[in-house]
Structures are given as structure tokens and as C-alpha cells.
Amino acid sequence: MDPVNVNPETNDTSIRTLMELPADFLPKIAPYLGYVDRVNLSKVNRALQDEVKSWKPEVKNIEVQCNQNRSIMTLDGIQVHYENVVHPGGRPTTTCKVTHVGRRSKMLQNANQLDLILSDVETVLRNPRAQLENFDVFSTTGFEQKIIEKLGSLVPQIEAKSVNLTMHCSTGQETILSSFQSGVLESLVLNDMNCPGIECGSHINLVTGLEQCQRAKRVTIFTHSLRPANFQLENLTGVEILDLKFQREHLTMSIATAENWLNILRQETSDLPVFKVEVPFDFQLQDFVRHMGNVTGLAVQHHGNMCGLNIAAKPHDYLEMILQLTPHALYGTLRITRKLRVRA
Predict the structure, then answer these.
(1) pLDDT tens across 136-187, in order?
(2) Which segments constitute the F-box domain (predicted)?
């Protein structure tokens, strides 16, 4: 890089603006600027906008919200709104308004907001330098198939550490997940609440059977199903925490279900370190303490809103089972943790 000339009498440089810097200077500062900083820099003038575009900014976080006539893509905190223009009276048009927050809107003819946002998401994801921290998709009813087709076509392109899929559909999430590179995904949140209860177990097993999920550290699933026999926990070979959330108040977990989960985790095929369920209970803690004490012959500790016991599993480990009721609420938490035996 050429040296910057300094006037010794005024102690001033001959460079007054960024554009007067040597040509190879601006690319050198790119690694020190986050996505938001790069966007702001590109707003200064046309030349800097072209310069920033040539850097191919590395986006770390993408959130996509798809609705009927308006969707939002958020890139590292910068929002882009896509909206189908509607005439007064509700008559639809073929015009889409795209608005970058802080900029003037663009009107695009013969365009649909969902097609545009998915095309832009694909552009970001196909950037070979894209290594995402978080990728979140939120969709209302009626748009899932397009989203599944678009994201599923990127196999196996996407690198992301955390994925959240909240979609009003009973199938298809596994197609999207197959687009993520295995070994990179660390945390998965899957909202399965719209899957029929009788299909929940098989659908979750299909998802957790993917290599991308098996090697994740934490899997969180919102589900209808709490029937232990429906879950193939042996698939989750690399998962450190399986967290199930069950929010329908009229469907609750019984003592028998909690006991069955414990027995499943004691089997030789399961090595899951931590299993957690957040769900309404249909029993009192003192009933659970009495039942588990009779079944296992072990002392069950009970203190206030929490009870627990330790029970042998494999030759070298044991399971710590803790139930805790949330005060003034209709639900509680079951947590089973696998721990190594301490040699005497």
C-alpha cells in the first residue's frame, strides 16, 4: 500500500475522504466491520456502495417471517419488508413494495412478496462465505410448500449453528433440515405443534434420524406426543440435551408416562445425557414420591415444589430424575440427567 503523505508544517495528511485512500486500503478494513456497519457504509455514496458489494458481506443471523401479503427478512438486525400492494377496497395487484429500513421503498412490477423474499434468502445462503450463527423461519398457514421447496433445493449448502423452524405444517421440516451441513448445526428448535398427535412420534423420529440432528448438541421440540414408545432415542447419538415442550393444557403427563421415560433412558440403546420435558402434570408430587418409592424401593427426596431420585442405569452411570412444579402455574418440568458413577 502506498504511504500516506503528511505535510510536516501543518501535521496534516493529503487525504481528506475515504475515497482518496489507496485502492487496496478499503478491502483491508472489511474484516473489522460487521454487517450493519457495512450497510451503513454503503449508504454514503455510489462508489462505496459498489465497494461494499464487492466484499460479499458475511451475514451471521437470518430471520424470515412469511405471512399472507407481507413478509420480513432480518439480516443481522437490518429489516427488509416485502409487501404485496393492494388497491383501495382490497383488490390485489401484481406489484410488490420492498422496503429496506432507513431507505426509500422500491416498487417492483409483476412480482410477489413471497417469491422475492425467498429469492433474496437463497442469494444470501448461496454465498460461499455464509457461515450463520442463527437461521430462523416463521411461517403462517399456506406458504410452507414454497418455503420447503426453495430451502430444500440448497442441499447441502447451508452452514448454521442454530436453526429454528416454526411452521404451520405437519411435514416438510426434514426436507429443509437436509439442506444444512452436518457437523455444523449445534442447536435445533422444531415446532411440531401442528402435526396430528397420532403422527407426532413418527415425524419426530424422521427428523431426529437425520445426520444433521443426530450430531446437534441441543434439540428442542414443541410436540403433541409424550408417548415414550414412539420415540427412538437411540438416533440421537450426539445430542447432549433433548428438550420437549408440550403446551396443551387439556393433555397432561401422568406418573406412568414419567416412569416410562425413565425406563427408556435406562435401556442399553440410549446414551442421551440430558432429557427435559416441560408439560402440565395430572398428579401431585407426593403421589409421585409414594409411587416411585414403592416401584424402585429407593428413597425419593421431596422438598417443596421439587422431588427427585437417583437410579442405576448402565454399569458406569446412573440417572438423576427431578420433577419440579412451577408455582402458581399448571405445568412443571421433568429432567433426567445421566451421570457417571464415582468409583470408590
Answers:
(1) 999 876 667 888 888 888 877 788 999 999 887 767 788 888 888 888 889 9
(2) 15-58
Closest CA to 114 of 134, 137, 130: 137
CA distances from 306 to 127, 263, 294, 296 (A): 49, 20, 18, 18
Name which CATH class applies to 246-344: alpha beta
Q: Which amino acid makes up residue 95?
A: T
Integer Cα distance of 341 and 312 in angstroms: 9
What is the spatial distance between Cα 59 and Cα 134, in angstroms, rounded to a whole number?
A: 10
The CA distances from residue 107 to 72, 99, 110, 126, 184, in Å, are 16, 9, 10, 25, 38
In sequence order, the β-bridge partners of residue 322 are: 308, 335
Helix axes 113-125, 144-152, angle to 10 degrees: 20
Cα gap 278→266, rounded to integer Å:
20
Closest CA to 264 of 224, 209, 313, 211: 313
pTM for the structure as a whole: 0.78
Closest Cα to residue 288, out of 325, 251, 339, 246? 325
At 102, list the grid cell.
432507513
